[in-house]
Amino acid sequence: MRKIAEDCTRLEMPFFVIGDTKSPSDFALSGCEFLSVDDQLKSGLQFAAICPTRHYARKNIGYLLAISRGVDYIVETDDDNFPSEEFYVPLPSRMQAHAVSGAGWVNVYRYYTDAMIWPRGLPLNKIQGDLPDLSSMEVDVPIQQGLANDNPDVDAIYRLVLPLPFQFERERRVALADGAWCPFNSQNTIHYRKAFPLLYLPAYCSFRMTDIWRSFVAQRIGWANGWSILFREATVVQERNDHDLMRDFEDEISGYLGNDKIRAALEAVEVQAGEEHIPDAMRACYRALVNGGFVGAEELPLLDAWLADLSASTNGISSAS
Fold it and tell me: Do 176 and 267 meet the contact criterion of CB atoms below 8 Å apart?
């Protein structure tokens, strides 16, 4: 985290760290804006008042604070990543890329290596599926996922039975267009402004699935708006914090059993194109996840609070400009 703070100071980028009840109340780091739980409650955000503590979803508060500062894009990571210079610079939001569409589940990691590896959240029966051919096309990619070397984002099953550290062998950019599903995470991800609503991390689900299920909602809504999800080469090295892998496995069971059902449920949701319709599309998608028993019903008022805070943040920027 110290390196990230130093990099952000040098690059004149705001850097937010969102604390939780386990965080030290006197945490301080030059170049970092730390918000304790008390600070979050004093922020005036509806979301901060009702989001559960001791949950990764409190990261949503950091997104809202960054958005209120008028940033054009948000770069997110975790405290066990060591970024390269490329990490801080998004690729253009519209670009020529290798792309695939309409392929169902795609193990995108296989475009970067011939080794047996798959991203956390990919259904286990799709790991060795056929790898679709790529074609060059112009894509709109307001959400971009960078890979991680040494400790890539893999599930507990991989970590229990296959070797680490791991290095991806190839550098390339792969865009997943309409109908090409692959989970992406919140550990090395960039969102441009028009995709800010899709940053939302659900709280009433497993910690190990919150960013994965966020990614499925983002893909469904993004495709309705003509967007693709861009994967790029590794731009961080992860030195992973200590984890209890069997506890991770237990927390991932809802995904092992449910991710393909979630895909089907989201594909059945009617999503209207247009950025102005994204809030309603998010409500419809999360309602489908609640109705399917994947996410708790408490998620819906929490999502409404997020959307209200997001609207207030963006309107405040407009009024001040």
Answer: no
Query: pLDDT by residue (tens digit) across 168-210?
Result: 999 999 999 999 999 999 999 999 999 999 999 999 999 999 9
What's the half-sphere exposure (Cβ side, CA atoms, 13 Å) at 291? 10
Q: To 5 degrees, how large is the angle CA 179–CA 204–CA 253?
A: 65
Q: How far is 100 from 223, CA to CA, in rounded Å? A: 13
Residue 271 in contact with residue 217, Cβ under 8 Å?
Answer: no
Instruction: Look at residue 223 and give its three-state secondary structure.
Output: helix
In angstroms, the CA 208 to CA 62 distance is 19
Spatial CA neighbour of 97 closest among 131, 136, 140, 133: 136
H or E element at residue 35: strand 33-35
Q: What is the pTM of this model?
A: 0.95
Residue in this structure with the two tokens 């059993």, named with its chain if needed: 257
H or E stretch covering 231: strand 229-238
- Measured in degrees and rounded to the nearest 5, phi and psi for residue 37 equal -60, -40
Query: Residue 53 — φ and ψ, nearest 5°?
Result: -80, 170
- Location of structure tokens 């693709």: 228
Taking CA atoms, 315 is separated from 23, 49, 191, 208, 320, in Å, by 32, 21, 19, 33, 9
> What is the number of other CB atoms lying within 10 angstroms of the CB of residue 228?
27
The upper half-sphere exposure of residue 129, i.e. CA atoms within 13 Å in the direction of its Cβ, equals 19
- Encode pLDDT of 80-115 as tens digits: 889 998 998 889 999 999 999 999 999 999 999 999
Instruction: Specify the 3-state DSSP secondary structure of 273.
Output: coil
Q: Is the peptide bond before 165 cis (omega within 30 degrees of 0)?
A: yes
Whether 156 contacts 203, CB under 8 Å = no
